[in-house]
TrEMBL record:
Organism: marine sediment metagenome
Taxonomic lineage: unclassified sequences, metagenomes, ecological metagenomes
Protein name: NADPH-dependent FMN reductase-like domain-containing protein
InterPro entries linked to this entry: Flavoprotein-like_sf (IPR029039)
Length: 32
C-alpha cells in the first residue's frame, strides 16, 4: 500500500506543509 499527501499551498515550508509532514510522519517511520 502507498500513502500520498498533496499540498496545494504556494508557500514553501508554510503551515499547511508543516501539518502535512506531521500527519505523514507515522507512515514514514513505519516504512510505508
Amino acid at each position: 500500500m502507498n500513502v500520498i499527501g498533496i499540498s496545494g499551498t504556494p508557500r514553501k515550508n508554510g503551515n499547511s506543509e508543516i501539518l502535512l509532514r506531521h500527519a505523514l510522519k507515522p507512515f514514514e517511520n513505519d516504512g510505508w
